[in-house]
Amino acid sequence: DAGIHVSEETKDASLQLPRAMMISAVLNGILGVAMLITFCFCITDLEEQVLNAQTDYPIIDILYSVTKSKAGTCVLVSLLIYLNFIGCVGVVVASSRQLWAFSRDNGVPFSAKIKIVSPKWKIPMNSLYVCFAISVILTATNFGSDMAFTIIVNVSNAFSLFSYTISIGCIRLKRLRGEPLLPRRWSLGKYGGIINDISLAWLVLGFIFSFFPMAPYSGSSGWWKESANYSFIIFLVACFAAFIYHWKMPQGEKRYVPPVFLIRNNQAFS
Question: Which parts of the chain span the membrane according to its record (predicted)?
Fold first, then answer.
């Protein structure tokens, strides 16, 4: 869904973006399943290659057992690193556009600075810098504590799934109430409701699993330090902080302009 966040920079976005998302979902799904099946067949010894891997990343052991070559393994791992890098660039770009759009509506602190668009590059550079800096800082926690980094990943995953649940849930609620949806040029048709239900079921399941501990409870005192998942606490604290900022603090409540208000105003004057 990263393309949604750059929709304002896309020509004919209302039609081209949904098409691109569906095509990418189908192609990536087919290729992903094929790759997964192939990869699973390459695991000939689960205990040696995965459970007791010589490296911290079992995928390296699996690739080496297949290629029998350190050079070949390095090449394949380098390709994976490159693909991850490209994916991270796309995520940072999408996140920066999302932050910029939210700051344009005065929905985040320091919106006046973040929403500035560079006259030279024609993109929100300040928003890009903020997202990049936050990514670097959060990633750096992995050097100090693996558990802290895992919690950050779990929290970000939970918030992502939670946001999707709200968006799809609102659409599903309108369908159940029989309310008309907004005008659109591309639609899922009669399959929209079923797809919404499947999506919500998967999102709720993934959201719950985001807060599961790293290992089953053992009863020992060390479990709380090494295996407990404190993501749920951080999730609640972040939600509470957002609530305080947007509904209780004057700068949040008085300055934030939801996009739906702008749409209604445009419809009223059209």
Answer: 25-46, 75-94, 123-141, 147-173, 194-215, 227-247
